[in-house]
Amino acid sequence: MTMGLLFLAIFTVSYTLVAKKLSATIITAPMLFLGFGVLIASTELMPAHEAKELLHVVAELALIILLFLDAAQIDLRALKTHYAWPMRMLLIGLPLSILFGTLFFWPFLSGQLSLVAIALLAAILAPTDAALGQAVVTNTAVPERVRRGLTVESGLNDGLALPAILLFASLAAEAMEKDGQNWLLFGALQILLGPLVGAFCGHVGGLMFLAAKRRKMTSQHIEGIGAIALACAAYLLAGEVGGNGFIAAFVAGLFFGNTVKGECPFIYEFTEDEGQMLTWGAFFLIGLALVPEAVQHLDLQTLGLILLSLFVVRPLAIWISLSGSEALPQTRLFFGWFGPRGLATALFALLIVERIDPDLGETILNFAINTVWISAILHGVSAVPAARWYAGVIAGRRDPAEAADMPAMRPEQKLGGPS
Fold this sequence. Notes:
The chain has 419 residues and is mostly helical. 76% of the residues lie in helices and 0% in strands.
């Protein structure tokens, strides 16, 4: 275990020394850390069972913090007035992705999974991760409106997909019925109480932060620690009252960020600093603990369905969601393709395994993990050339809507981040 962590530390140091050079290539951090995890798994320097135990802790902590921070970076007022495209993708495209995934998978998986289980799988595959396409969201040749649209969507869709995932997981969980619990009541409490607890913690916490800052009772670094503790508090309190902690963390971040209104720079800086390390560590552990086993369950049908999800399900859903908007056809295709499945998909799959039938959970987990590593390769490799092609398309147009000026963001705020 120690030697495995030592090699991870050395690998991380090495990557940071060349990260800027690599950012302009087809090689991404998730690809490298997933691959390094698979390499370490083959050496047995870190036993898989120990890595799985560590992954559960890292996965849960990463999801709590990243849900909170992603939501905290969203300006609700700007979202309503200046982000019509990501709002369409979130409110129309995301549900359509789940619906299309369920419909397209049903003919192939109906003999193995129930309709509810297929819907659960489709919901887990719906969230996206802009971190897998950093060459796109950081490429200034791509219009800022498009880059912001991708980061806003990826920052919010994991939190918005979570209620659907929990609902389908509760429907699929036979254990709940055996325990005499009413699944409908359980699901309703999870989805309703979580947001209430999150809203309370986020708003009250934000007011307390502002009061402390006005009285100069805190400092930027200390309040950053407090923000992370607030996310964990929302998660734990929701669990105590019967709500879902992950939804609570997401809503708490949303209310906190819009209460402090940029007065806590840490929540924007963490995502690009300490948050990156947390994300890299999670990808490494996924590669180490989950990818080798998942690959053993990758057959031609599963591969075909994964490619169907990546090339058809999301692109079709996004195309329809942007119909009637001023987005060019090339923009709809661009948005549709750059929806890589990343950390949220892997963590959601990992966390629902224990809530449902073990065999069903393992099937869904292996499918999700195979989707993540395949997406990491395909979206990572295509990011640079696709961004170059798309930038050329927009440059050849006269006054396209994609090139419209966007309102200045608050100095401390940086929209988006890993999800």
